[in-house]
Design goal:
alpha/beta, 5-stranded mixed beta sheet, 5 helices, globular
């Protein structure tokens, strides 16, 4: 499953879990392009990848290409990944590095407070409230 949503302001919400297919990625690229094109200011992305395992080479190539093409449209991005999966963490570290945008950051689920602090700086009150709801929904689902 891969889903991009924009409920409030310029907050881009991303949910993904395994297995993530090439077909889902192609649809996701269409979805994110449509959302980003509706906004004149760069967006702030909050993502929950705690249920996303190791991805195929084909999927990761699409992710890196999308990150690079979307870089000018992203003000900040925080990806929540599981602390327990070292291999998935290494894969995401590589993807973020190859995405070539220092405002994209990884946070393991044991540093949730750091993630909130990083995104809070870029969001208004309504966006901060929605971001917390997004992560709270996903915390309940994964518990």
């Amino acid at each position: 499953m891969l889903r991009f949503e924009n409920h409030v302001g310029r907050l881009l919400e991303l949910r993904a879990d395994s297995p993530l297919t090439v077909e889902q990625m192609h649809q996701g690229v269409k979805d994110i392009t449509a959302i980003l094109s509706m906004h004149t200011r760069p967006m702030v992305c909050c993502a929950d990848f705690r249920k996303l395992g190791i991805m195929s080479k084909e999927v990761t190539e699409i992710i890196v290409a999308t990150m690079r093409s979307d870089n000018p449209k992203i003000e900040r991005s925080a990806y929540l990944i599981p602390s327990a999966s070292a291999t998935a963490g290494l894969q995401w570290e590589r993807l973020v590095r190859e995405g070539l945008n220092p405002v994209r950051r990884l946070y393991r689920d044991d540093d949730y407070a750091g993630l909130l602090a990083y995104l809070d700086e870029a969001l208004d009150a309504a966006e901060r409230t929605r971001m917390r709801s997004f992560y709270d929904e996903n915390m309940r689902v994964s518990a």
